[in-house]
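Ticket opened by: R.M.
Priority: normal
Category: complex prediction / small molecule

The reporter submitted a protein together with magnesium ion and asked that the result be attached to this ticket for the collaborator who will pick it up next week. Submitted input follows.
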Amino acid sequence: MNLSEIINGLNDKQGQAVILKDAKNALILAGAGSGKTRVLTRRIAYLVTQKDVHIDSILAVTFTNKAAFEMRERLSELLRRPIRSMWVGTFHGLAHRLLRAHAAEANLDAKFQILDAQDQARIIKRLMKANQIDESKYPPRKVQWFINGQKDEGRRPADIDPGYNYFIKQSVRVFELYEQHCKANDLIDFAELLLRSYELLKNNSELLSHYQRRFEHILVDEFQDTNTVQYKWIRLLWSKENQVFCVGDDDQSIYGWRGAKIENLHKLEVDFAPLKTIRLEQNYRSTGNILNASNALIANNTKRLGKSLWTDSGAGELIDIFESRTETDEADFVVSSIQKYINDGVFPDECAILYRSNAQSRAFEECFIKYNIPYIIYGGLRFFERAEIKDALGYLRLMENPADNVAFERIVNFPTRGIGNATVAIIRTFADENHTNLLQAASQILPTLPTRAANSLGGFIQLIEKMTNDSKHFTLSEKVAYLLEASGLIEHYENDKTDKTGGKKANLEELIAAAEQYNHEPDDNNKISETLGFISLASLDSAADGKAQINQNVQLMTIHAAKGLEFPYVFLVGMEEDLFPSRQSKDEPHLLDEERRLCYVGMTRAMQKLSLSFAIKRFLHGQSLYSYPSRFLGEIPSEFTNSIKQKFGATQKNYQEDDIFNQDFEPDEQGQLAIGAMVKHPKFGFGSVLNFEGTGESARVQIKFKKAGTKWLISAYANLEFV
Ligand code: ATP
Ligand code: MG
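Result attached by the on-call engineer:
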């Protein structure tokens, strides 16, 4: 591959960034869709083919596993060879790889297991209970949040001064207990992966200089969302001899709530001097209307680094803003629109529905089933986080490693086999006192138990032994297939009445496929077994969810999960106050700014057509509430939009400002106010009901008057006449 192939399809600025020559670090600071990710990928190709940089000398950090997967594909296409061994992945994935390669130096057992957020929560809760820490005063969730937050900042219990704050004091205590527990059980949580791998390099100068020499080029995508430890990790790996190349966009920083520091972008200039900043200004993704609307929206944020983005792709279609009565109607509008696109030859996977919160997906799912359109939901519960999958992995883990206590706890009585909580508590105590693992402890206390308990527990121990022995020479997927039967899990889920669609059983079968597709890549001095590799992947991977099916499905995901992606047709739904922006963010300017950036990210995913929608009444989190259109809608200049309002009986209709007064609404049977009803007020004249809230004396009604504008009135005193 020659130079002209590499810079083919890049503009001057992009090309300049790709072949950046002088030994400087670089920051590519640019708005959405300006080709940052493309530049980063091409730069790697350039380094490898033109600068003879060895593939193993490159460290590339992406934001999701999906992005890492795509980057690998793209690169192996560009370089025309497989690049399996290359260090490209998420911060978590790379940290994990480092720790596996140097477990001993990191004070970890070679078989350490990754603890996901659910298991972490369970352990914290149990430790608090065992140490009589009052859950009502110190909610375990909050303590968990605290611990992870501290780790993201690079702090251990000894680094925290609680002062007079009781919550912090107790949380630090739990933090200590939790650390001991993880150490004793060879567990490592997500935040720990990062912190531990940072400490590993920091405290081990030989290892550090080895990696500093090895990684001649460090490239980071989505830099605006790095947290403190991630930043420090990169800073540590920079020896001044090697080069750091970051791309980012301050307007797309959306993980502040999880410890990401937008300031890291600003700090780069000082901490990584000399640093060359390159700005890209042409957007290649979206139409003019989509881009200009997004620019106008984000202009409402202060404290921006400021960028201008333009496109020469033409204005394109207007952005639809659809108002529906309920979330069900909203879903119907969106899905029927998608149906029309599909009839016109659009592929389902060219359409995406993006929402603020996972709970919103339900209404759409029902509609997709009704319309018989294939869809896939990303996020929510990831494949490997599903209960049935974790059950199966529990068996696999215990077969691989008898000391895996988390797995033991999960499956000892699942499927149920008559082992009660009391027995498990005895096992735990015995294990604690005798410094042994739960499976060992179980064998040892067996003779002391009453007959029935002893029989049940003995059965379990024998089962695990038998399964371990039987499957010794099986391949990974044979092992999985075998354990599903032998453990009784398949049978259990076959008889599970709550699983009406058989989805759980199907998922278990999918796990066999996942095991079969798993590519084990033993590399460096990394000696982990295939099974352990697979188990770790299961804990880390978020994109393994039905990779094969992606092509034919409409894509549903949160806006957070859509970062970096693009789709021809995007529906950004639930554009309502208290949902988007979220209620918690409304009184905090910095949170509100982050919500607005999130809206900007959502809008800029769209290439050809963007539709925004909101419902007047929404059932969410167990309640049905009236809502107001999101303020973000008001921040988009109307020249870029086309408003559509749902009409009774019809799904959609274009309407003009005044149309609303011409519709044939009637008050409902009890003479109650209905949305859309025409009324007359003694002073303000004719108007139409937009919204109402409250009941009885305090009921209020919002009316859009023809002449007097929109007003809220107390129903009881409004003296309204129905027209
Ligand atoms: P985001 O901020 O959303 O992550 P980005 O800046 O990383 O966006 P890319 O995803 O790299 O942008 O590029 C956006 C789209 O524009 C992609 O489809 C990409 O292939 C295309 N693109 C980028 N540069 C060019 C170019 N010079 N000519 C044509 N298409 C381009
Ligand atoms: Mg990108």
